[in-house]
């Protein structure tokens, strides 16, 4: 499919081909390939199910509107039943951020960390981020993008938890870029934290256009733009190798 | 200052120099250069002052949390006094979106439309957008970015008003790109709506890193990245002109 990602390691310090093999590989990975988890006791499963619903609700209606009363309505549970799990609105918000973080790690980060260091891992992080918006892993789009803009001016423990999760995400991207530099896959002159923000910005902007304006092609376009940006930086890296053979995505 | 924008039109269909003259020009424009406005009656001024405060409050705490009660607390006014201006929470939200839109037009769009068509106008739009976040024209950062992610999954008249404002913004950017293409300032092969979203995404991502993570240099970096992107597209335009003389910002 046009604009999707394929990557073929050509040689140790040379260029990458980008086409759609990479994505086809991803598509064949089903959720069942995730590492098996321990069986959780019923109380924990109930709590997790509640938090899963809370993360969806917060992605739709905002984290500040996530009260025990609102969630009880949504789940058709009693407020007292929910109070048994979470003593206050803030406890519920913090637990929801924790659950959203686990879901995000399962959907985006952990599968990417299973890929080889360098360009394959970096591309998988970005592809999975775009796909978790496209596939509505959270009902309202990216939980953390919404929560970031909602809480950026609201100091307190909830904001701190969101900041912590987002710092972890940016450092995961940054580390993947550093690894790609070490592997000789992209330009060693780039500043990794800055480049991480640059390519992530394209994804956030696409989320905005997709979620608000209904631009169906925004995520596909972001994918192509990110690829073109990575391609230009792998080309700059070439040092005398043939650059003409970096294909269009 | 490093990373700021200067632009010198070199010749009709050739390259641009980018350095800091452009920004110095902007700095010399004070608010008093805005076109004079009619004197408004007192009731209208009161209503506008209320809405100005409402837009700030919404940028800090979210538009959904903007109730007549919350705003009355903030302004130390009676709820009945506010009800005289706005009959319902939704009326207040819609009027606040309208006010935010006027403030945004005054801070970003109108001054840019006073600049010559082509690269000068496009750069001024982007520079003013970054600056309205940096200078906290709205207390909590960009009103519309926050409102976009808050309302993208909340159908209704408020979402419709936000979408309308954001479509206008994207088409203003798109038109500026088309004009820059017609003037021969940037590559005629670019798709203007797509390129508009691409460069705006850098600004939104920088807002995210600045507002949430406190990255003081995020806006400066976005400015440099946008300039580099525009430079690369004005270079592609060259058709045989000397490209080596496009300076670093």
What does this structure look like?
Chain A has 249 residues and is an all-alpha fold. Chain A has a domain at 101-245: Orthogonal Bundle (Tetracycline Repressor, domain 2), CATH 1.10.357.10. Helices cover 63% and strands 2% of the residues of chain A. Chain A is elongated. Chain A starts with 6 loop residues before the first strand and ends in a 13-residue tail after the last helix. Mean pLDDT of chain A is 83; it is low at 1-34 and 237-249. The A-B interface holds A 59-62, 64-65, 139-141, 145-146, 148-154, 162-163, 166-167, 170, 194, 197-198, 200-202, 204-206, 208-209, 211-213, 215, 218, 221-222, 225 and B 59-62, 64-65, 139-141, 145-146, 148-154, 162-163, 166-167, 170, 194, 197-198, 200-202, 204-206, 208-209, 211-213, 215, 218, 221-222, 225.
Question: What is the secondary structure topology, with strand pairs?
Answer:
The structure is a homodimer of 249-residue chains.
Chain A: E1 7-9, E2 16-18, H1 21-27, H2 42-61, H3 68-75, H4 79-85, H5 89-113, H6 119-134, H7 143-151, H8 157-182, H9 192-211, H10 218-236
Antiparallel strand pairs in A: 1-2
Helix pairs in contact in A: 2-5, 2-7, 3-4, 5-6, 5-8, 6-8, 6-9, 6-10, 7-8, 8-9, 9-10
């Amino acid at each position: 499919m046009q604009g999707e990602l394929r990557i073929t390691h050509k040689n140790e310090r040379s260029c990458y081909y980008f086409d759609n093999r990479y994505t086809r590989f991803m598509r064949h990975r089903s959720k069942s390939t995730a590492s098996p988890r321990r069986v959780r006791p019923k109380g924990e499963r109930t709590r997790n199910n509640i938090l899963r619903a809370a993360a969806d609700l917060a992605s739709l209606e905002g984290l500040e509107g996530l009260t025990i009363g609102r969630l009880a309505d949504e789940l058709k549970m009693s407020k007292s039943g929910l109070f048994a799990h979470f003593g206050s609105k803030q406890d519920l918000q913090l637990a929801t951020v924790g659950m959203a973080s686990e879901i995000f790690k399962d959907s985006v980060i952990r599968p990417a960390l299973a890929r080889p260091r360098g360009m394959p891992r970096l591309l998988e992080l970005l592809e999975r981020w775009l796909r978790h918006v496209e596939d509505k892993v959270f009902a309202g789009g990216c939980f953390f993008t919404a929560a970031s803009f909602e809480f950026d001016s609201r100091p307190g423990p909830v904001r701190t938890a969101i900041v912590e999760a987002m710092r972890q995400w940016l450092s995961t991207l940054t580390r993947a870029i550093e690894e790609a530099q070490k592997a000789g896959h992209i330009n060693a002159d780039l500043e990794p934290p800055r480049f991480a923000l640059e390519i992530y910005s394209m994804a956030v902007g696409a989320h905005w256009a997709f979620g608000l304006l209904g631009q169906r092609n925004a995520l596909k376009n972001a994918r192509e733009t990110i690829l073109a940006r990575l391609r230009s930086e792998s080309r700059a890296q070439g040092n005398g190798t043939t650059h003409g053979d970096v294909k269009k995505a």
